[in-house]
Structure prediction request, 398 residues.
Amino acid sequence: MPDRESQIEHRKSRVVIAGAGPAGSSLAIRLAKAGFEVVLIEREKFPRHKLCGEFVSPECIRHFNDLGVGGQMLDAAGDRIVATNFYSQSGRSVSVPSEWLGGDSALGISRDVMDATLIEEARRAGAEVFEETSLVEVERDGDRVGQLSVRTADGSRRTIGGDLFVDATGRSCVLANLVRRKISGRSGTVHPERRYIGFKAHLENVDLEPGVCEIYLFDGGYGGLNFVGNGVANHCFLVTSETFKAAGSVSCLLDEVVYRNPRARKAMENSRPLFDWLAVSVGRFGRKELTPTANLFTVGDSAAFIDPFTGSGMLLALESAELLADAIVGGHDIGAVYTRTYEARFAGRLRVSGLLRGAASWPRAASGLIASLSASRSILRRIARATRGERRRTSRTT
Prediction:
């Protein structure tokens, strides 16, 4: 008689996904279109602003086309970004054309628009979607996840069962941590002391050329600026917790730290935020657990957090969802297949991004690196491609 593992792997499983960001919603779309019963759980009510660089690299357009939302995303994009310019605190700069990354242009698009588009496509594809629904508890079935207890928008409790479960809740890894506490007895993922804090706001009246994303390196962190529509630009930056503590406020942080980069000051000193600054702490970069337990998998930032200045976070979310969808559809040894393909796709680019982060953390090193790269476009291009990995296939239209 076949065991439960074999039964799960050889039939259309019921898949429960926690988190409806790009990774969770795109996975839901792929699996629902493949005939799986999909439940998508999201804590927030969409549309909503999300702390993010809002830079969608050219390779993502192929994924949007596959998901059936390519035209909508292109229509919603606030800017077609043809180059990313990096500025050191010393004033040196280097430019990376978007065509090096796999397409004619990247997109500047607000997360409230993009995420709402994806979750609506998940509904149309047949996924059952619960917004304003938070995870409360995990019920175990031996060493597996049996069902989830959730609290809905009206405050009521309900249980949601499934065969396979996916954590797409981002860096917080909410579902994976609940599972670790319940099944393994561990208290959750142990992170080092929170070292970074990210900030984001939409700004008006910036001095920025359309079609360009600018990255500013400064002592204690880095930030980026690009248009997302209607003359509004997104400014997202990351600093060490010590840097923020010393500044004491966002306004002081901008004036005393970010604007020490002369290009950042010129671009934003007369700008005005359109909403209160969003802030979030960041524990660590790099890989996390892909399969915390037998029938639980992680995607997007729950699986790995790549350095934001590479502009490849959205791509990692969409690619990891595609890899997991392929493994689930394949139906044989899902965890092993997903882990193997994930390592092959992402291990190299995560290492490269970590090395670049080390150089970007020190103004002198950053200035020297930018000077060296501006003198050799062939090396610059190879490094830019290394933050993406090899091209897998070309974009196609729906």
Notes: Confidence is low (pLDDT under 50) at residues 1-10, 189-193, 391-398.
